[in-house]
Write a structure and sequence with these properties.
The chain is mainly alpha-helical. 75% of the residues lie in helices and 0% in strands. The chain has helices spanning 7-27, 34-51, 56-59, 62-91, 100-125, 139-164, 171-188, 198-222, 226-259, 267-270. Helix 1 (7-27) runs antiparallel to helix 2.
Length: 274
């Protein structure tokens, strides 16, 4: 399916997402919940993806560059808080087998991370996203950019996929694949017609997210006292192995269902003519 997007609809959705992000930042509490942090980061990522499609005149403006820096600062400022939320959620089922001091330490770290996140979001809340009018570009140009970026992320995802399907220890590559799949999914969601690849990408993103959450927990625990946390580590490693096997199985099944020859489903989109 060729990806297409209209300039008027894109402008409407861009401003809607940008305003929604500002509203989330303004409404963030001093101790944001994990759900609030997640929603903020997803909104920021979506706006980042959309901004890559804006006309060059808008992208290179001083206001636009400032806003880009604010977006990056917000994501950096909330990353530790998100990791801590992920870690605490993953460890929750093992609470009874973990030292109490570890949980106290995590709570204190979260409080400090929440303060830094709040400060970053206050800057975002006071920032104004650059305006974009439909007449500044055409649907044809937007569609061409959309397909170009989809191809780029799709190719990178394919390369990473080939690495991780045969090696469970590729932690960084699995994390990078999750990011590429996420960006590709957000891009395809902009198309006028919903591509058939979207359900696959959504499923893969969820499975890769589970693996990443477990990797975050394992990395944190492995840097501590293994004698105190050995049992929890073994459980988490087994959970991580099961999550990895699940992703391998479903990704192969999705590929076979998509093309019949084991190729990635999104290939039909990333190879669409421009």
């Amino acid at each position: 399916m060729a990806l297409k997007v209209g300039s008027r609809e894109f402008a409407r959705r861009y401003h809607e997402k940008a305003r929604g992000l500002s509203d989330i930042a303004r409404g963030l509490s001093d101790r944001p919940t994990p759900g609030e942090v997640h929603d903020l980061r997803v909104a920021a990522r979506r706006v980042q993806v959309m901004r890559r499609l804006l006309p060059r005149k808008v992208r290179v403006s001083q206001a636009s560059r400032r806003f880009d820096l604010v977006l990056k600062s917000t994501l950096n400022g909330t990353s530790q808080l998100r990791d801590l939320d992920t870690l605490m959620s993953t460890l929750e089922e093992h609470r009874g087998n973990l030292p109490g001091q570890l949980l106290v330490t995590l709570e204190n770290q979260r409080s400090d991370a929440a303060a830094r996140a709040k400060a970053a979001c206050e800057v975002l809340a006071s920032s104004t996203p650059p305006e974009f009018e439909p007449g500044e570009t055409t649907g044809r140009k937007l569609s061409r950019k959309l397909r170009k970026r989809a191809r780029r992320h799709g190719r990178t995802a394919m390369e990473l996929l080939s690495e991780v399907l045969t090696d469970e220890s590729k932690v960084e590559e699995l994390h990078s694949l999750r990011i590429e799949v996420k960006k590709l999914r957000y891009l395809l969601e902009l198309s006028q017609k919903s591509p058939r690849e979207l359900p696959v990408l959504t499923r893969w993103q969820e499975s890769l997210g589970t693996i990443h959450d477990l990797d975050v927990a394992l990395r944190y625990l492995e840097e501590g006292d293994l004698k105190l946390k050995g049992w929890a580590l073994d459980e988490l490693r087994r959970s991580r192995h099961r999550a990895y096997l699940k992703f391998v199985t479903e990704s192969k099944a999705d590929s076979i269902e998509a093309s019949g020859d084991g190729t990635f489903l999104v290939r039909s989109t990333i190879s669409a003519p421009t």
